Amino acid sequence: MKYYVVIPAHNEADFLAGALQSVGEQQLLPKRVVVVNDNSTDATESIIDDFVARDTLFQKVNISSSTLHLPGSKVINAFNAGLDQLDSDFDFIVKLDADVLLPKDYFEQIATIFSNRPKVGIAGGFAYEQNEHGEWKLNHPMNKVFVRGAFKSYTKACFEAIGGLKNAMGWDTLDELLARYHGFTTYTEESLHVKQLRPVGRAYDAKAKLLQGKAMYTLRYGFLITTIASAKMAVKQGALRIFFNNMVGYFKARKERTPYLVTPEEGKFIRKFRWKGIRDKLFQP
């Protein structure tokens, strides 16, 4: 299978070389790896230049967006800038963070998943983070069917059906919901251990704290699902402020009549899917 990799990078000098090395050592190599240097002020660009000089597999794109490390808009702006450099001759497309280390058979296994499971539109491995003892421990979302935004692979058919990645907070939830809306499924392979070098959310600016609630509004979750989802997030992360921030963000978006990211029909599907997930967890044996 043929595939492309796009890596947005903003001040990733501490991690980028390892990430690019792990991609360059894949048993199934991509056609091209586009690294998008987004307004970096550290050594990110020089690291990219070094890889580009050594291997024609890599390509650099420079863009200048906001200096704020806000989730959603910044990373998808960079991803789309990289995507613009590519043609449509691929079987799957990969959005990869600059702070991950992949096992050497990662994309070989992703290609096998897509080949053997025609309904799968989005696939990935499992996220592991290093604890204070130097041990790599699983740190994946509560819903293990969810593919982490740091390492998502999309079949061409699925990527086109969902209209690409939305430039907003919540893009990595919306893509999976829209994939299901269009008849695709997601798949996570437990044997693929992806090392995430930076703890999730560590680099985000404080101004991002209300964006999760805003995202829930724009996805047409509604008040009840937003409340339940926010409470779960707060419990999982052991921080009551997360619930408060999410709800403030939700009501702020509603007051300002923030445009929705999905149609009423898609919103109805999303709410039905979310309620099914809640019921299944409540009544599971």
Number of helices: 10
N→C terminal distance: 40 Å
Structural class label: alpha/beta
Low-confidence stretches: none
Bin the helical content: 40-55%
List the SSEs and their pairings.
Elements: E1 3-9, H1 16-24, E2 32-38, H2 44-54, E3 58-63, H3 73-83, E4 92-96, E5 100-101, H4 106-116, E6 120-130, E7 136-138, E8 151-155, H5 156-161, H6 171-181, E9 185-196, H7 211-218, H8 223-237, H9 240-255, H10 264-283
Helix pairs in contact: 7-9, 8-9
What would you note in describing this structure?
- There is one protein chain.
- By secondary structure, this protein is an alpha/beta fold.
- It has helices spanning 16-24, 44-54, 73-83, 106-116, 156-161, 171-181, 211-218, 223-237, 240-255, 264-283; strands at residues 3-9, 32-38, 58-63, 92-96, 100-101, 120-130, 136-138, 151-155, 185-196.
- Strands 1, 2, 3, 4, 5, 6, 7, 8 and 9 form a nine-stranded mixed beta sheet that branches.
- Helix 7 (211-218) packs across helix 9 and helix 8 (223-237) packs antiparallel against helix 9.
- The protein is built from ten helices and nine strands.
- It is globular and about 55 Å long.
- 41% of the residues lie in helices and 20% in strands.
- The longest helix has 20 residues, at 264-283.
- The mean pLDDT is 91.
